[in-house]
Amino acid sequence: MNAVIYYSNTGECRRVAEYLADKSGFDLIDIYDIKSFEFDTAVLVFPVHCQNIPRAVNDFLKRLKVKALVAVALYGKMSFGNVLYEVQKNYRHKIAAAAYIPAKHAYLDEKGFEDFEKLEPLIEKLKNPTEVKIPRSSKNPLADIAPQFRSRAGVKLYADAACNKCGACTAVCKNGGIENGKPNKNCIRCLKCVAACPQNALRFLFSPSMRAYLKKRKKTDLIIYV
């Protein structure tokens, strides 16, 4: 079985995954809908979280059995860290191709990735998925220190008096990060729940450090390893 598997909270990774699935003819599967973890060739599309691999993706990679893996990481601002190298080193999967793709940041009003034709080398490599080696890239030495806590600290998320505990936010969050308007330690601050709230009751505030970060010049490097 061949598939394009995506982990997407804001929709950006799904857009890229849909394109790759359409061009390759592979099945398109949400990471949370996986029934079997055995594949011939799998394309995994996921976002970089605080220069790290998201927990749901780490959990998936631990269970994955695949002959050839294509890893595609989307990043929204300054750095993609070292995630593709870590995928290859930590999980020992045969990496046939990989890419870092500049995408829309969840907290910024900007266009998403549109240069889909530049991903053609990934599609071509699927025809002959020989192994490639991913080089180590730069990563902030503090990036591995409590990334989920730092994400929560950067954005305060709360429900105002309009919240009627309808459960819409709980239903839309596949990370199990919020319950009836109250976020918990699993919340990654993707703000998907904010958009889904029928009462417009969810509010968020950026910390001073987050506001400063979002003002920095964005990196737009597209890097493909084939």
Could you explain the architecture of this structure?
This protein has about 230 residues and is an alpha/beta fold. Helix content is about 25%, strand content about 25%. Strand 7 (about 180) and strand 8 (about 180-185) form a beta hairpin. The mean pLDDT is about 95.
Care to count the β-strands?
10
Q: What is the string of helix and strand elements?
A: EHEEHEHEHHEHEEHEHE
Low-pLDDT runs: none
Number of helical runs? 8
Proportion of beta-strand residues: 15-25%
Note the overall shape. globular
* Biggest pleated sheet: 6 strands, mixed
Comma- or semicolon-separated keywords:
226 residues, two-stranded antiparallel sheet, alpha/beta, six-stranded mixed β-sheet
Write a compact overview of the structure shown.
It is built from eight helices and ten strands.
Topology readout:
Elements: E1 2-6, H1 12-24, E2 27-30, E3 38-47, H2 55-63, E4 65-75, H3 83-91, E5 95-102, H4 120-125, H5 147-154, E6 155-159, H6 168-172, E7 178-179, E8 182-183, H7 192-196, E9 202-206, H8 208-214, E10 223-225
Parallel strand pairs: 1-2, 1-3, 3-4, 4-5
Antiparallel strand pairs: 5-10, 6-9, 7-8
